[in-house]
Amino acid sequence: MKAVRSNVQYHVGNETETETDMYSEVLAGLKAEKKTVSPKYFYDKRGSELFEAITMLSEYYPTRTELFILNKFKNEIAEAIGSDTALVEFGSGSSEKVRTLLEALPGLKEYVPIDISKDFLYQSARALSIEYPHLNVHAVSADYTAKFHIPELLSQSKAVFFPGSTIGNFDPDERINFLKMTADFLLPGGGLLIGVDMKKDHAVLNAAYNDSKGVTSEFNTNLLNRLNRELLADFNLENFRHHAFYHAEKGRIEMHLVSLKNQKITIGNEQVAFSEGETIHTENSYKFTIEEFQEIASSCGFTPKKVWCDEKNWFSMHYLMVE
């Protein structure tokens, strides 16, 4: 049997890999005046499965709408990126969305998927390199929101692919820092293809995060299961409920877990008191107009070049360049 060629190389991209002290971070958030837990803790195995289920829900439009835009405008997007470019994907996951771009860029020579989940990254990169044997795949295990490095590339310039409207999960200061860091990474001549969710009818937004099947509710409350399992907490999930709503003044969806009674929770060796109605703020998802996002990008060193939307103007993909 002929061996299958896999042209993939593996790299660790962060200069120092420090393990986050989950216990200290979560405890500090729960003891704050307004309780919070970082959304990065959603994604244990069950949380990742639930999020995949969310993307398939009829109410949750972002994933399918972004895929529609990518497929409809793939040739225009490919022309903007150019073939003499290394395509770098932040948070590559299974590298599913990038396949549309690779089909439209047959001359592309280098692809650099970056993801913090090392095992999943390497598995996905190997599969992709077999599927596209002409492509040099450099899989980089790194946190792309922190300083990282990638191997030396042959292509003249770089283009970052950042789909999924993940930019909406950054708070304003984090967003500015991330975009400035990305511009520095790309250098003049580099481009950023980024998915951005748009402001729209509040009913559409609220339905997307309060689906009729309750999957988003389970996704949110699964966070407490993880804290129980990994941090020896004793949250009773029946004493909390999912609450998500669009905050028009701040232009964002907020997700919370609401305490249904006065109660005390033990986490490790500490106790945390909740009053009835008090919440744990678990996620923000900012929405933008085209003009708002382009103004933010311009302040961070980018020049807006192209924008593509669906017919309802629910979602947008921007191509920005560093000049």
Short description:
The chain is α/β, with parallel strands linked by helices and 323 residues long.
Describe what this molecule looks like in 3D.
The chain folds into two domains: 33-58 and 202-286, no CATH class; 61-200 and 288-321, Vaccinia Virus protein VP39 (Rossmann fold). Helices cover 34% and strands 26% of the residues. It is built from ten helices and 13 strands. It has helices at residues 22-31, 45-54, 62-72, 74-81, 98-104, 118-131, 172-186, 202-208, 215-231, 290-299, and strands spanning 8-12, 85-90, 110-115, 136-141, 157-162, 191-197, 240-247, 252-259, 263-267, 270-274, 279-286, 303-309, 315-321. An eight-stranded mixed beta sheet has the order 1-4-3-2-5-6-13-12, with helices on both faces. It has a three-stranded antiparallel beta sheet with strand order 7-8-11. A two-stranded antiparallel sheet has the order 9-10. Helix 2 packs antiparallel against helix 9. The relative contact order is 0.17.
Characteristics:
single chain, 323 residues, alpha/beta, Rossmann fold, 2 domains, 10 helices, 26% strand, globular, disordered N terminus
Helix content: 25-40%
CATH superfamily of the largest domain: Vaccinia Virus protein VP39
- Which term fits the overall shape? globular
Class based on secondary structure composition and strand pairing: alpha/beta
Mean pLDDT: 92
Q: Tell me the series of helices and strands, N- to C-terminal.
A: EHHHHEHEHEEHEHHEEEEEHEE
Q: What is the highest CATH level, the class of the largest domain? A: Alpha Beta
Number of continuous helical runs: 10
Rg over CA atoms: 21 Å
Distance between the termini: 50 Å
CATH topology of the largest domain: Rossmann fold
How are the strands ordered across the major sheet? 1-4-3-2-5-6-13-12
| Overall number of structural domains | 2
Instruction: Provide the β-strand percentage band.
Output: 25-35%
CATH architecture of the largest domain: 3-Layer(aba) Sandwich
- Low-confidence segments, given as residue ranges, are 1-5
Question: What is the strand tally?
Answer: 13
The description of the largest β-sheet is: 8 strands, mixed
